[in-house]
Specification:
By secondary structure, the protein is of the alpha+beta class. It is 30% helix and 23% strand. It has 14 helices and 15 strands. A hairpin with a 5-residue loop joins strand 13 and strand 14. Helix 3 packs antiparallel against helix 4.
């Protein structure tokens, strides 16, 4: 039974008296409200929440009305950040953080997610930014276990981390910025940065605060970041995989990251060696490899690997792999047998002034000036014939239409291809590639 269930209209105390466990939950919830209100008697938001508890759970609308009146008196717009700052400054922390600001730096509640949990891992409060990060609506997370926002094995292990801290008082994850992976409401996995700290209380009364932020962008736009399990199974990938590999990130989730490389055994051995090292999250490991492309020759890349998650626990850490191309693929497009664009590089899209997402929906005919656009479909069917001296396949200067209608002179280097022996998931085999210069 969660606090959210208890606060739903239509339920009353008598609905739960058939179980000693459920009755104990009600008593514990009431005691928690009383303790917090003793510390913050003028917090309008808390007064309103407790009033709702009294009205719908305790079936005491008269007393609830008094708390609603007090809530209106003090206002209910106080932010979760204000409450958290009050908690952290009112008690000294065993972890050594003097207050919230010193531990987290500047926090912008509009963009930074804030979650407060108790010693059992139950979500007590969550702000709008955290709800948006995980895809939930207002009221959907309060009272639920924080583990529902984590993929396995982190979901299974989280409460043991809390118990270990409650018993020993020794922080292993607290007060350190960590890269973690979260489980979105749509069941997709995504990375985020987390700073967890103790707000107040001891033992079973301990409250914890988590500050959640989206990871900073990679050092340059061509670098792609993967999050994988320690065994190399891809949990999430940046959207930039489509530009680097010709495959959408969603098609890569669940694959072994080593299988994206020409020499998968070498890459897998490198990852196994990295995982076997006893390292902190700040340490990175680098190597070079050739990465498969759905439509182009293999891409030479540099891999930079770091640890995320609970670094000290080998079962609950994961890999953050940044892949940076060493060479430039140039301005390239890949077409199918009907002349539809399957893939374009960022460089070609920039040359013609189109957003790359728009070009992926275009036909080559729409990029050719009149009358060549109308004639090109027939030419695609005659690729086996020897090209004439004015053909684009002969290396002559031709023109492509830019987004503003201007003609851009280019020379083309074209090559036909069949589906490769090792295909990338989600990629359609092209009929030929065009290299614009």
């Amino acid at each position: 039974m969660s606090a959210v269930d208890l606060l739903q209209p239509g339920w009353s105390l008598y609905s739960y008296q058939d179980s000693d466990c459920k009755l104990a939950t009600l008593i514990t919830t009431n005691l928690c409200f009383c303790r917090v209100l003793e510390r913050y008697p003028n917090n309008g938001k808390l007064l309103k929440i407790y009033g709702r508890f009294l009205e719908y759970v305790r079936n005491d609308p008269c007393t609830a009305a008094k708390y609603y009146a007090e809530a209106s008196k003090y206002g209910t717009s106080e932010s979760l950040l204000t409450l958290a700052q009050g908690q952290s400054s009112s008690t000294s922390t065993t972890s050594g953080s003097s207050n919230l600001t010193s531990a987290t730096g500047t926090v912008n509640e509009r963009v930074d997610g804030l979650i407060i949990i108790n010693a059992s891992g139950q979500i007590l409060m969550v702000n709008a930014a955290a709800l948006a990060l995980f895809g939930y609506g207002k009221g959907e997370l309060e009272g639920k276990s924080l583990s529902m926002l984590m993929p396995q094995p982190w979901a299974q292990q989280h409460n043991s981390f809390l118990d270990r801290y409650i018993e020993s008082g020794v922080p292993h994850i607290l007060d350190r910025n960590r890269t973690m992976v979260g489980l979105h409401k749509d069941r997709s996995v995504f990375p985020f940065n987390l700073l967890a700290m103790r707000l107040s209380g001891l033992g079973g009364d301990t409250l914890f605060l988590g500050v959640l932020r989206r990871p900073p962008p990679t050092s340059d736009s061509t670098t792609v970041r993967f999050s994988t399990t320690a065994s190399g199974l891809i949990l999430s990938a940046d959207s930039g995989t489509e530009g680097m590999l010709g495959v959408a990130a969603s098609h890569l989730v669940g694959q072994q990251v080593a299988n994206l490389f020409t020499d998968s055994d070498v890459v897998q051995s490198f990852l196994v060696k990295t995982v076997g090292s006893k390292s902190e999250s700040e340490t990175s490991y680098k190597t070079h490899a050739s990465m498969l492309h759905a439509y182009l020759p293999a891409v030479e890349v540099e891999l930079n690997v770091q640890f995320g998650g609970a670094v000290e626990d080998s079962e609950c850490r994961f890999l953050i792999i940044e892949v940076h191309p060493v060479s430039d693929a140039g301005a390239v497009m890949a077409l199918n047998q009907k002349g539809r664009l399957l893939f374009v590089t960022d460089k070609l899209a920039a040359m013609l002034g189109y957003p790359i997402v728009n070009m992926a929906k275009m036909d080559l005919n729409s990029l050719l000036p009149t009358p060549y656009g109308q004639m090109h479909t027939a030419w695609l069917k005659a690729l086996d014939r020897r090209p004439g001296p004015s053909s684009c396949r002969a290396g002559g200067v031709v023109h492509l239409l830019a987004a503003n209608g201007a003609k851009v002179p280019v020379t083309l280097k074209m090559s036909g291809t069949k589906a490769p022996v090792r295909t990338m998931a989600g990629a359609d085999p092209p009929r030929f590639r065009g290299y614009s210069r």
